[in-house]
Amino acid sequence: MEFKIAKRSEDYSRWYGDVIAAAQLADYSPVKGCMVIRPNGYAIWEKIQRALDDLFKATGHVNAYFPLFIPESFLKKEAEHVEGFAPECAVVTHGGGEKLEEPLVVRPTSETIIWSCYRNWIQSYRDLPLLINQWANVVRWEMRTRLFLRTTEFLWQEGHTAHATETEAQEEAFRMLGVYKQFAEETMAMPVLTGEKTPAQKFAGARHTYCIEAMMQDKRALQSGTSHDLGQNFAKAFDVRFQNEQGQLEYVWATSWGVSTRLIGGLIMTHSDDKGLVLPPALAPTQVVFVPILTKDAETVLQATRHLADTIRPVATVQVDDRTNVSPGWKFNDWEQRGVPIRLEVGPKDLAKKQVVLVRRDTGEKQFVPQETLPETIAMTLRTMQQDLFNRAKSLREDNTIYLDDYKQLCDLFAESSAFVKAHWCESPDCEARVQEENKVTIRCVEFDRPQEAGACIVCGKPSPGRVVFSKAY
Amino acid sequence: MEFKIAKRSEDYSRWYGDVIAAAQLADYSPVKGCMVIRPNGYAIWEKIQRALDDLFKATGHVNAYFPLFIPESFLKKEAEHVEGFAPECAVVTHGGGEKLEEPLVVRPTSETIIWSCYRNWIQSYRDLPLLINQWANVVRWEMRTRLFLRTTEFLWQEGHTAHATETEAQEEAFRMLGVYKQFAEETMAMPVLTGEKTPAQKFAGARHTYCIEAMMQDKRALQSGTSHDLGQNFAKAFDVRFQNEQGQLEYVWATSWGVSTRLIGGLIMTHSDDKGLVLPPALAPTQVVFVPILTKDAETVLQATRHLADTIRPVATVQVDDRTNVSPGWKFNDWEQRGVPIRLEVGPKDLAKKQVVLVRRDTGEKQFVPQETLPETIAMTLRTMQQDLFNRAKSLREDNTIYLDDYKQLCDLFAESSAFVKAHWCESPDCEARVQEENKVTIRCVEFDRPQEAGACIVCGKPSPGRVVFSKAY
Question: Between residues 63 and 82 of chain B, which touch chain A (CB distance below 8 Å)?
Answer without folding.
Answer: 63-71, 74
